[in-house]
Specification:
By secondary structure, the protein is of the alpha+beta class. It is about 40% helix and about 25% strand. Among the domains are: about 120 residues, Immunoglobulin-like; about 120 residues, no CATH class.
């Protein structure tokens, strides 16, 4: 009986030790891709990037934490829709906190790249002024930060496969004579028809359908197949991406179908056909399609519906502008008046 008591006591001690080990484990915080602090006197600015190396389908968060004395002001640099070659996807309002070190101001920007390559976040200047002291303003200059953006495509995708060798044509004139005879018969039949039994001129053919009508019919046929509900999201995104690319190529003459997303936006970046906000929304749409087609990303039902709504809205807005009609925003302004 004493031996059984010792066994139960040993098991109880093992359980207590394992429970203590689980309670003492701490989560490991993920370090940012870049972080550095710059100071000038009592003023300091901490700069951090969540990613300094990323792909064209990813985003990075630029965080600026400025600390200044309580009786002073620190002016942030002004940004609009872009920071260097990166577009600002999200920029929440600035936050202010009063700590033991003084006034702390926090501002963050979610940035998205356009193309692959090495791009700098440009130099930023912060200006600090002490209101109660007659001293000149203080400048804190943040040097530019290099960010490497990788492509989603591998180097093998840009290389053409080898061309098959040229085959010699067999020297058999039977088929040559046969084809020539058939061609002669066809020419004679056409000449007889043209001169003898040709009917009067028929009505001229109907004009071709406008690009937005063709795209709308293709969208209706795609949605009628219910590919997304059948779990065939990759096929759905391939076809809806092709519909929008074919529409842009048919309407504006851009080579959108044969180009990759990176090549297309390289030309679109300098094109005056679309405003900056439409370019940004169009890039988000194609990047999302590339994630599903190449990165095996599985979208939710809401993402699929938003993709469909964006495609229809983009076709509707650009077709109205191309025909000289007011867009949706202009119609709403006219109705308000």
């Amino acid at each position: 009986m004493l031996r059984g008591y010792r066994i139960w006591l040993a098991l109880l001690l093992c359980l207590l030790v394992s429970a203590c080990q689980d309670d003492t484990e701490q989560p490991i915080a993920e370090e940012p891709g870049f972080q550095e602090t710059f100071s000038q006197g009592e003023f300091a600015v901490q700069v951090s990037l969540s990613r300094q190396e990323m792909s064209v389908a990813e985003q990075t968060v630029l965080t600026l934490i400025a600390t200044a004395p309580e009786d002073s002001t620190l002016e942030f640099p002004a940004f609009e829709a872009m920071i260097g070659d990166f577009s600002i996807v999200r920029s929440p309002p600035i936050r202010q906190e009063l700590t033991s070190k003084g006034l702390t101001q926090i501002r963050s920007f979610t940035l998205a790249p356009f193309l692959s390559g090495n791009y700098p976040i440009p130099e930023m200047t912060f200006i600090g002024v002490q209101t109660d002291v007659d001293t000149p303003p203080v400048q804190i200059i943040i040097p530019e930060i290099q960010v490497m953006v990788a492509s989603l495509l591998s180097s093998d995708d840009h290389e053409l496969s080898n061309i098959a060798p040229v085959l010699d044509i067999p020297k058999d004139y039977f088929f040559l004579w046969l084809i020539s005879g058939l061609a002669l018969i066809a020419i004679l039949a056409f000449a007889f028809y043209w001169t003898r039994i040709r009917k009067p001129l028929e009505d001229p053919p109907l004009p071709p359908l406008p690009p937005h009508v063709i795209a709308g019919q293709a969208m209706d046929e795609l949605l009628a197949e219910n590919l997304a509900e059948q779990g065939r999201s990759k096929e759905f995104y391939e076809r809806i991406s092709h519909i929008l690319r074919f529409y842009i190529e048919n309407l504006f003459g851009l080579k959108a179908v044969e180009q990759t997303t990176e090549e297309f936006f390289h030309d679109l970046k300098i094109s005056p056909l679309f405003p900056a906000d439409q370019k940004l929304l169009l890039k988000k749409f194609l990047d999302h399609c590339d994630l599903v087609k190449f990165a095996e990303y599985q979208p939710g039902r809401d993402e699929t519906e938003n993709t469909t709504l964006f495609c229809r809205k983009f076709i509707q807005q650009t077709s109205r502008i191309q025909n000289g009609l007011p867009g949706q925003d202009e119609q709403q302004s006219a109705g308000a008046r």
